[in-house]
Structure formats: structure tokens, C-alpha cells
Amino acid sequence: MSKSKEASVEKSVLNYLKEQNRPYSATDIFNNLHKEHGKTAVVRALEQLAQDNKIKEKTYGKQKIYFADQSQFPEASEAELSAMDQETVRLGDEVKALNQKLLSQQSLLSTLTNSLTTEQIIEEIRTTKEECERLQAKLDALTSNTKMVDPEVREQIYSEHTKLIKEWRKRKRIATDMIDSILEGYPNGKAALLEEIGVETDEDANVELPK
User: Which residues are in the Leucine zipper with capping helix domain (predicted)?
Assistant: First the structure.
């Protein structure tokens, strides 16, 4: 390598260490300079800079760490150190808040990923309503009939009716949660969304979920 090229690599490495003012290994510097110079050239430059006392070198086990000579930087005042401590605390709190937000978003994404699609919810609601209407009609016919119904048959009907009401309530809750999630990123109101995806509410169908 020519002398001018070596000088260019040394200047680039020295400027980087001064700007960052933190310890790095040769590999870190090579990568952080976006591999602008070959790794061998970076290692040679670091060794030469350390030999010339332009940077400091520390050895930890088998790894060498390089950093700028701190004597070239002015000492920070008490006020500056206090300000840096406060900024460190602020940034730490900000990182915690961002991590919590990330976890929340990941949880929401997982919920949405594992939930039914909008089309599936619409079909489930339609099927459940039809089944409830069929059973309600059957129940009305039986309760209005003066002929006594076998107790076991009656109990079976009531049990099935109760089961379907619970399923109706469960699926309505799932549909509501899904619609609310979609609305978070939807530009228009709820009525516009329901019309766009073709969802018919209980109110639209003039039906009411039994208590």
C-alpha cells in the first residue's frame, strides 16, 4: 500500500474515533466505516496510530480495543456532567417507553394475526343469526302450543338455545374487537367501515341479544 493511501486510512480512522469518542475493536471500526477500507489496512492504521500515541490501545484477553486520547478533549464542568446525567436518564426513560409500546404493538399484531378474518367474522355472524332465528321460531312454536312437551325435549331445546345465545354473544364480542382494531387505521367512521365490508349489525336486522 502506498504511503498516501496509508495516510488516508489513518486519517479516516483517527477522525472516526475522535468523532465517536468511544472504544471500538478493529472489526467494529472496519464495519462502521462501511468497509471503505480493507480490514488489514484498518488494523495497520490502528497499530500505527497507537504507536504514534495519537490514540490509546487496551488489550482484553485476545481482543484489542482502541479509543481516542482523552487528553485532547476539554474536561466537562459540573453543570455539563449534570446535564449529561439528566439527558441519560431522559433517554433511558424514552427507551423504556418505546420498548413498552413495541411490546403492546407486538401483542396487538399477534392478536390480529390469530383472529378470524373480516370475511370469516361476517360469515360466522350470519350463520349464528340464522341458527338463533330458527331456534327462536321453534321455541316460540313450542311455548305457544297447548300440548304438553316432553320435559327432556324441552330441557334439550332450552339448553341448545342458551348455548347458541352464548356463542352469539362471544362472536359479537370478537367481531366488535376486530372492527375496533380496524378502525384504528381506518380513515372514515364506523358506519362507513361497516357499509364497506358489508357487515349488518343486530340493530340493522332488528334483533336484540337476549339478556
Answer: 149-205
